[in-house]
Amino acid sequence: MTEQLRDGYDVVIVGGGAAGLSGALMLARARRSVLVIDAGAPRNAPAAGVHGLLAREGMTPGELLERGRAEARGYGAEVISGAVAAVTRADDGFTVTMSDGRTVRARRLLVTTGLVDELPEIPGLRARWGRDVLHCPYCHGWEVRDQAIGVLGTGPMAVHQALMFRQWSADVTLFAHTMPSPSAAEAERLAARGIAVVEGEVAALEVVDDRLAGVRLRDGRMIHREALAFAPRMVARADFLAPLGLQPAQHPSGMGEHIPADATGRTEVPGVWAAGNVTDLSAQVGAAAAAGAFAAAQINADLITEDTDLAVRAYRNTFSAEKEARVGELVSADRRHGL
Fold it and tell me: Could you tell me which residue ranges the FAD/NAD(P)-binding domain spans (predicted)?
């Protein structure tokens, strides 16, 4: 069933994750008309639970989003399923075109579409992603504590990541894979923490009874591991912004691409804000939700300024018309009295 949409909204939010729904909640409570368009592909869908989020620890990502949608709708926000194909500039804001051809107008746009993790093409890896193949120690470290953890060397963050996961387990092995060999200083730091370095390219993951059993190298060696971590390259979901001239840029960390935005979430395109992982690669769920709410407050303030400016112009026009009419009445009265 296709939802019946109004012609225009104060704010259209593209992306219905933690950042987008928090923004929708904030704006709806500010009595703004809000439409959330969600493509239904949350980045954390493979995870068993959300962690580090106060009072929601361990809740499944699906339940968190379901509750968020219900809360936003409870204050009047509209949340629909769909993908945005393009956003173009209109006289009074933006025209948002969805992949099914529908269009809506928006005075402001909040982009909260998140990221896509680019995974190495290693047999068995993709199927384990978000389970025992991980990237964030703060999201998953507790769940794999004291296990045999491997770190896959795919880029410059591998040594840092190995040292990070050492906080959760004394049994950490760094697989050099495609990364450059650690420098002398890095090798010393790894050795000091008891982290072994295994040279050679990883060929596949070994899975037994739906659990990671180990890492098989190209030369045939099999290294027992119960969890594997690596840092994927992350790319912003933002192709639909191209008509506005807003393109993803390389993130300062070198870990991928993002939509640049200032501390308030404002992008270089007037009227467009961004929040959550689409602009902050490292934001966990709590940080993304907070950023969405904060950006929404800035958008509402911007709309208040615009609404007030429009009201002042209307007030001045009305006042001038009334004044002119009164002057006309006085002139007519003077003429009647021969003055």
Answer: 9-292
Per-residue pLDDT tens digits for 214-230: 999 999 999 999 999 99
Helix (H, G, I), strand (E, B) or coil at 158: helix
Structural contact between residues 35 and 104, judged by C-beta atoms closer than 8 angstroms: yes
- Cα gap 316→308, rounded to integer Å: 12
- Report d(CA 270, CA 168) in Å as an integer: 44
Residue 177 in 3-state DSSP?
Answer: coil
Domains of the chain and CATH, by start: 8-117+233-311 (3.50.50.60), 120-229 (3.50.50.60)
What single letter denotes the amino acid at residue 43? R
Cα 192 versus chain centre, distance:
37
What stretch of H or E contains 218? none
| Residue for token pair 């949350």 | 42
pTM of the model: 0.89
Per-residue pLDDT of 99-141, as tens digits, reads 999 999 999 999 999 999 999 999 999 999 989 999 999 999 9
Structure tokens at 194: 């008891």
What string of DSSP letters covers 136-149? Answer: -HHHHTGGGTTS-E
Q: How far apart are CA 139 and CA 117, in angstroms?
A: 15
Amino acid at 326: R
CA distance linking residue 292 with residue 310, whole number of Å: 27
DSSP annotation of 45 reads: T
Supply φ then ψ for residue 278, to 5 degrees.
-65, -25
Q: Which tokens in the block code for residue 126?
A: 């993709």
Please name the amino acid found at residue 161. Answer: Q
Residues 6 or more apart in contact with residue 284 via CB below 8 angstroms? 52, 53, 136, 138, 139
